[in-house]
Amino acid sequence: MDPRFDTIFSKPENQVFKVVFYPDRIYHAQYLNATRSPRYRYNVTEVRSEVDITLLKCEVFLDGKFISNALRIEYRAGRLVEQAREWNRFLRDELIANIDVLPQSTGPPVNATVKLHYDEWIGAYQAEIWETLEPPPTGSHDIKVLDMMGKEGSITTVPALMPVLKDLWSFQKVEASFRENDVDLPFGYKINDPAWDNDYTRTHQEPRTQDPSSDKNTIADDKYYLTFQRGWFLQANDILPVRYRNAMMDGENPERRDDNITDMRWIVQRELGGTLVYFHQVTLAPGAFEGVHQHMGSEELYYITEGEGVAYMGDGDDPTNDRFPAVDQHIFGLGVKTVRQLPVKAGNVIYTKSGGIHGIRNPAGNAQSLKFVAFGYSAS
Questions:
Q1: Do residues 151 and 241 share a domain?
Q2: More confident residue, 106 or 172
């Protein structure tokens, strides 16, 4: 018996975390591929999720002996389903995942293309990339699991990934995209123009220039990004802002001015898991105005940290706001609508769900900047 397996299996804290913080510390789960045979168990050392994607770093044990490290990919395909429907197709039993594993040290990413198989146990497409499919020198794989192994099996190996899988800590970042299978199953005809889920037109912001509203600051991603880094200690003021002129204002807005500049320090973006998109700090100098706009399919939360100003919220979005003045404002892309005008100061929270309207202004007569932090995320 491998002593690591015995320790993993018997630690009382693992029983606690299995229930409370599932699945970050789960060491054995019925749905992992090889556990169709009781001879196999997994130690899942780390889990990361992003929208429909879950990655698990694992150690695999056979008959109590460690045999391989593994990276498990699970993908629930909510977005790809919609992409395929535009072509009047349904997703079938197999999909393709393209992943780039970025080593912890400097060096080029390691690319892998892996076939994912639909698994009814978890309602998702999945595959496990093992470091090796070789059994121990004195043992053999269970026949119940052996038929899952191979180049296109749900348990597979990728020669290019063997070096990084030897040490699960050696890689901390993974980028991934997904597409339809090459062949439409069960009909067998070739899909010449497969649908893709590569995070669509998702971008992130970098302060490559201080010119307001420069396209140089918008970086196309084209892949999902998952990081196994466990923590960050950041100084927001050390991060240069990205500057925007007339943020969230279209050409019809009469309040547009060349000197209406909003500074945004993009503190955390692609590193966020789940459906979170960004956490940033916004600074409005006296006279600056982030235009009133509507959120569709996303939510955003503002927390005012410094200064005072005026915020706008859609009329009826929060029924308790009826006590505040009703005013007309130009809404980005929607024309003029009635909104509620709210006085805001440090400690106030503005929370806007999908369909809601908000905007914020630092009046010209104020003596200090208005600052707030914003969390934005998908509402799905």
A1: no
A2: 172
User: Do the domain assignments include residue 146?
Assistant: yes
Across 281-318, b (16+ Cβ under 10 Å) vs e yields: bbbbbeebbbbbbbbeebbbbbebeebbbbbbbbbebb
Query: What is the band of 380 on the pLDDT scale with cuts at 50, 70, 90?
Result: low
In a shared domain, residues 175 and 309: no
The pLDDT of residue 13:
59
Beta strand pairing call for 94-103 and 110-119: antiparallel
Q: Are residues 63 and 107 in the same domain?
A: yes
- Cα separation values, 330 from 109, 262, 314, 339, 357, Å: 46, 18, 12, 10, 11
- CA 259 to chain CA centroid, Å, is 34
Condensed to tens digits (0 to 9), the pLDDT of residues 34-51 reads: 988 989 988 888 889 888
Domain boundaries, position 324 = 204-219+229-378
How far is residue 195 CA from its own chain's centroid?
20
Give the type of residue at 241.
P
